[in-house]
Amino acid sequence: MSRFSVSLLGGVGLIVLAAGLVSAHVTPPVVLASDRDAVAGLLSGSRRFFVREVRLSGAERDAIQKQSGWTPNEDFYRFYLGRDDQGALVASTIFMTEYTLHGPVRVAVGLNPDGKVKGAQVVEITEETYPWVKPLIDQDFARDYVGQGSTGRYTLSDKLRAAGDSMTQFYGQVIVSLIQRAAILYDTTVLKRPTSG
Fold this sequence. Notes:
Blueprint: H1 3-25, E1 29-31, H2 35-42, E2 48-55, H3 58-68, E3 76-83, E4 89-100, E5 103-111, E6 117-126, H4 130-138, H5 158-163, H6 166-188
Antiparallel strand pairs: 1-6, 2-3, 3-4, 4-5, 5-6
């Protein structure tokens, strides 16, 4: 066998091994709540439901990056709007996802008509991250951010810093960041754009 063939086989072998290691790291998802249940809970008090899809313009992406340091990785987002019988907005919900080394973290965030956080719920994580995120869920730590808008203070409370290990704190900060990003997107799009529905 020539040196080229040995090198080629060795290179292919390394690629296959690396791909196997990467794919083996992510564990199966743990669905903590269905999308329907999350939307229904976060839009409580609503009588009529609508979907509002927004595509970020370049100017909106720039404004978000300038305000928060976060550059949205998607151009398209979907808000679920709940209205009362007279058509007044009661609340909206958006699903936000962050992809981490240990898999995705998906959070549903409810926002009041003024863009302030109404509530948040972790809806999906991986088996690997579950033990780190469960203490946060058990403490209902998302309630610490209720009432904050896009420019609120989104840091982990001292109670959570003291209670969890470094991975729990890391995932807590990921979730807090997703809550803030939802408020920023709402402020930048739904509040600033006229609506027809």
